[in-house]
Amino acid sequence: MSSRTSRVDAAGSVVPPQDTYLGMPPFPTAAKHQLRNSQQRSNLTHATRTIRGKRNALVADKDDWEQLRSAGAAIKDEVLTHLDEYLLQFEEAATAAGATVHWAPDASAANRIVGEIAVEAGVSDVVKAKSMATEEIGLVEALAAADVNAYETDLAALIVQLSADVPSHIVVPAIHRNRAEIREIFATNMGTFGEPAPADLDDDPTHLAAAARHHLRQKFLAAEMAVTGANFAVAESGSLLLVESEGNGRMCVTMPKTLVSVVGIEKLVPTWRDVEVYLQLLARSATGEPMNPYTSVWTGAHADDGPTDVHIVLLDNNRTDILADEVGRQTLRCIRCAACLNVCPVYERAGGHSYGSVYPGPIGAILSPQLRGLHDDVDRELPYASSLCGACFEACPMEINIPRVLVQLRADVIDEEPALKPSAERAAMSVAAAGFSHRTLFDIGEKAAGFAHRLIRNERGITSVPGFSGWFSTRDIATPPAESFSSWWARTGGADDE
């Protein structure tokens, strides 16, 4: 699997990865590889079950949880239905407050805008809060190409950067690492990015956090520019909100002179009253907390109060294409809480790197193919990276029907590949389609099923079929009933048998 190869050159500059998710194999291949990593699987199982347990306890104590979910979904649907109006309202309010608003139709434009701001500000180093939007567009790599080093300040994102790794979780990017691995990463690599780790560093979480805090403090004090994302953008006031657990985001939005925030256009909410709903939904779903420890809000630029040069980059990057899809547009409700990852049995076993995208798990399986298109094997396989068990739908605080979108995307994959390679499975599906389309063939099939009932003597049912050995290696089919429903109805007229 492709991985990052970041390093620091002789001048102390961060050399970016030569690739990130590009070149990763499709999910079936990647997952098979990741399943062999027993340590990672153990790490993920422990972490996701811990978060899930905390989340479930808090939700159980919230009597109006389902009403909050419905309200959150309704507010987002209102925004998406009138997105053009809310975007213009936000731009007008943010500009009036002293911010400069930029429109980025795609990743290339967003990266160019941020790079130009950095060059104009004359900075060579920037500090960066964790942001899914900037990961999506590959901003760190783009800035490095412009000779600007971007340093991650979120603890988990820092771990990923120091280890030349890629994130594997939306909220906790280094969830696949345990504390012993983190200690080794800090001890080996922290010094090449700045302040080294203490020589006697152990794997006590308190000591690891202290080492990261000391390392990052030097970055915050020296940085003249910061880059962030935003969890919400309030249309009525032009404000941005960033919620986090460590305080690094607060440092990014208050310390440097220049502040740039890259924000997906779907992050809008109409009013401050709406924010109340999301702050209750997000913290409980993401980290199992009633409230995030840090909620930072900034509105434009103000003299002698935080950054004096504030920029907001509104990112489309195919979001308007998703908006045009009646089934897929609900994906844009996502508030990046990762609740779906924490309940997904596929993610827990295969890990985030199997998805070949910055967005892993169930939400990634529907978001990535829509953002990037169904143009290669990685994105065409993602809609199948699910058992359709529905746990993600039940956990989603925004009521995104992920299984429904997955099924739609599977249909889109087939529609875009009319000339599929012949296989036993496709032949069987063709026969089934013909049988369900013609009553005579359907009746013949029912009689054949009754005949199969008389032949099968195995209590497990049908355990193998020629040409389907792979499918039956993990599944059995129950023995067909002795009498079909049609036959029973014809015989009884629907009356109960005596």
Automatic annotation (TrEMBL):
SUPFAM superfamilies: 4Fe-4S ferredoxins, NagB/RpiA/CoA transferase-like. Signal peptide: none annotated. GO terms for biological process: lactate metabolic process. Residues 332-400 form the 4Fe-4S ferredoxin-type domain. Residues 36-45 have a biased composition (Polar residues). Residues 89-314 form the LUD domain. InterPro entries: 4Fe4S_Fe-S-bd, 4Fe4S_Fe_S_CS, FTHF_cligase-like_sf, Helical_ferredxn, LUD_dom, LutB/LldF, NagB/RpiA_transferase-like. One of its GO terms (molecular function) is metal ion binding. This is Iron-sulfur cluster-binding protein.
